[in-house]
Amino acid sequence: MGAMRKSQLGVTLLEIMFSVAILTAVMGVLFSLSLSIGDTARIQQVKATSNDEARRALLAVVPRLRQAQGTSVNTEDLPGDVLKFNMAADIDGNGTAVNVNGNLEVGSLVTIQRDVDDANEDGVAAEQLIMLQGEEITVLANNLSPDAAPAPPADGEAPAPNTAGFWVEEQAGGVLITIRTQGKSRKGHVIRQQFTELVNPRN
Predict the structure, then answer these.
(1) Residue 9's pLDDT is what?
(2) What is the DSSP letter of 74?
(3) What are the pLDDT digits (tens) for 64-91?
(4) Does the CA dihedral 58-61-64-69 come out positive or negative?
(5) Percent of the chain's residues with pLDDT above 90
(6) What angle do CA 107, 167, 194 make, to 5 degrees?
(7) Residue 148 in 3-state DSSP?
(8) pTM for the complete prediction?
């Protein structure tokens, strides 16, 4: 009987290179997929945060403005980025906002505006919406769009889009409140959202 040769097991260099190439391609796809998922998650997080901030502001402003004395709203200054009004209030403690003479009682002036001067001294200014009432300062929202309203267009020119973070104007006999919030994606792209509410003061 002739001598039996032992089979030689192993892989060639070509097979190794082919395997590495496949592994590299798969890892590249998985890496791109993870980045895409991360970007999508970040965008959804920015949108959710913006929604929460704007809703919080509207939940604070709308009920107060509905209880405002209509003639106290600063309509002569609108459209603009400052809202002022006096709310109906039970000043004499009789259980209603109407005094014994039948006149509406109103509380101190309420001012809603961007915190341009950092009134609450928290280090956040233009991107924060605050409410001033007497000596009390309440933060209503953060992450406002930092843009101001555009200047009036010249004759024959189309008006520039209004991207102000807080804007108020008269509309249909009421007050239209617009809040624009923004955040940034992982790649630095600005994501903006707009929220509006038309409010009619009841008093």
Answers:
(1) 62
(2) -
(3) 999 898 899 999 999 999 999 998 888 7
(4) negative
(5) 37
(6) 120
(7) coil
(8) 0.76
What does the buried/exposed string (b/e) look like for 56-69 if buried means 16 or more CB atoms within 10 Å of the residue's CB? bbbebbeebbbbbb
Q: Cα separation of 144 and 183, whole Å? A: 9
In this structure, which amino acid lies at residue 59?
A: L
Residue 4 DSSP one-character state:
P
* 8 A C-beta contact, residue 166 and residue 113: yes
Identity of the residue numbered 140 = L
Place of tokens 């267009």: 153
Helix (H) or strand (E) holding 181, with range, is strand 174-184
User: What are the residues whose beta carbons fall under 8 Å from the beta carbon of 94, sequence distance 6 or more?
Assistant: 100
Residue 6 has pLDDT above 90, yes or no: no
Residue 33 has pLDDT above 90, yes or no: no
Residue bearing tokens 């009036």: 152
Tokens at residue 115, please? 């915190």
Helix (H) or strand (E) holding 37: helix 13-66
How far is the C-alpha of 128 from the C-alpha of 116, rounded, in Å? 8
